[in-house]
Amino acid sequence: MQPIGPQLCNTCRPLLGPTEFTFMDSSINQYLQAKTKMEAEIESKNIYLKSSEKEGEMNMMGESWAELGSRIAGLMLVWATIQQFFPTQLRVYFEKLSVKFLGIVYPFVQITIHEYTGGRRNEVYAAIESYLGAKSTKQARRLKADMVKNSKSFVLSLDKSEEVTDEFKGAKVWWVLRETARSTTPFLPYRSAPEERKYYTVSFHRKYGDIVTGPYLSHVMEEGKAIEIKNRQQKLYTNKPSDNWGWNGKHLWSHIVFEHPANFRTLAMDPKKKQEIIDDLIAFTKSKEYYAKVGKAWKRGYLLYGPPGTGKSTMIAAMANFLNYDVYDLELTSVKNNSDLRKLLVDTSSKSIIVIEDIDCSLDLTGKRKKKKGKIREEEQNDPLEMKEEEKEGDDGSKVTLSGLLNFIDGIWSACGPERIIIFTTNHKDKLDPALIRRGRMDMHIEMSYCKFEAFKVLAKNYLDIDSHPLFGTVGSLLEETSMSPCDVAENLIPKTASKDVDTCLNNLVEALNKAKETAKLKNEKEAKTKKVAGKTARRYSHWMKMIGKLRRKTDSENKSNNDP
Ligand SMILES: Nc1ncnc2c1ncn2[C@@H]1O[C@H](COP(=O)(O)OP(=O)(O)OP(=O)(O)O)[C@@H](O)[C@H]1O
Ligand SMILES: [Mg+2]
Q1: How far does the centroid of ligand 1 lie from the alpha carbon of residue 310, in Å?
Q2: ipTM of the predicted structure?
Q3: CA of 488 to the centre of ligand 1 (A)
């Protein structure tokens, strides 16, 4: 026999639902009117059904609906009488009794999952959406289609009020996507918050409660998340200035679709180092249990350092594409204080990379802690009171401080979401406070260096589609003798004509390398000369200082002997 619960929901709810609610708050007279109206509606439904093709079958259904309707209406009458004439205690008793009774005649349970909870998009809702999207293609008649990654395919999801049935270990469930009406209050300057809008309901027989709330929902989450990862569009977020977070302070980040083409195959660097990084990333993504076991937050920090144009930003994009993670590009200069920094952190999702580019330029975080005015004395640098002053400055609305940033990376708040990577980039590693880049905060320090022969081969393959060439030897030895960033090498390799003349491109590169070598030689000679002159001046200075000292001592002793009696 088909369970009548959810069928009752979908077929009869439009008839019974509103009438029932109106009745709850009204008098018996209103009830009688409502009952008459409802019976009329049920009757009209019967009339409609009678005229359908399967007349006999529908007649039976119509009768059973009418019967059910009149039974419920009877119950409502009793309920209204109780509400009107019985004292509160008795009413509570009857309320309990009616719930019990409803449990017998309507043994279905319903769980609601809202799209937004506590101001954030509910991850459970998102997983259910993906899961049902895959399930609904065969069952539902109305689906929504969204474009995903590279615009190659569509992701389908359930449309409003469509129902999808699912079965798990013998338990049958009914999913429906519902939507509450938006607020139309004319007095409010804003419309209703988005968290009040969409929600899924899942209905099932009470006897399957353990299966559905346990293994079934876990199964839905797992499957949904897997589909989500497969289909998801990576996003590139950037933080809005603190003053621009919206009336409810909930819109901290703005985003666009992340479509950077970088990947590890096209990244030019030492292949061994590259493999090490790839292995490290894979190990990180598979270490959920390990991190839980050792009691560490599931996060990892990478410090990318090296001269300009050596591929630090490109590496971040390659990592994001490799892991299929979102990127949060954090602009520290537009964060007002440490408290706002924490809010931004809490608002990032899991499976994401939080990036702070050029950390040495972002804030006054370089080297040791500094005072605003004048030079700080050595003993003041480690003074805990000094640090407290600085902390105070960060929280009362002035600015982000070093300790605020340290807490952001490795404090209690850093564990507020799983599977996150934090990356800093800098051109000057030596300028950074050691506390900022110690292991545990920045677990892996990756040097992005000038282009060497192995990296050049990758670029030659990328830009000219060649694995070898007679000029490779010359290029290789020139790269050993001079320093050129992969960015500059790549620029020389880009064909300047449509014919893609490989020889011309490589000759351009050889010429540029020779020029760079010559410039570096001249620069070195100039530096050596300056050093030599400086050394000579220093020696002369010390010689004259010695002479002056001698002269002073001699004059002092002569004066002393002249003054002796
Ligand atoms: N290692 C590399 N492999 C492939 N391409 C590279 C590499 N390094 C640089 N490039 C190319 O040079 C351009 C600039 O590189 P990128 O922005 O990654 O350098 P960066 O190290 O972040 O520089 P900066 O320190 O100035 O921010 C990129 O568009 C990329 O095409
Ligand atoms: Mg960069």
Answers
A1: 5
A2: 0.99
A3: 9
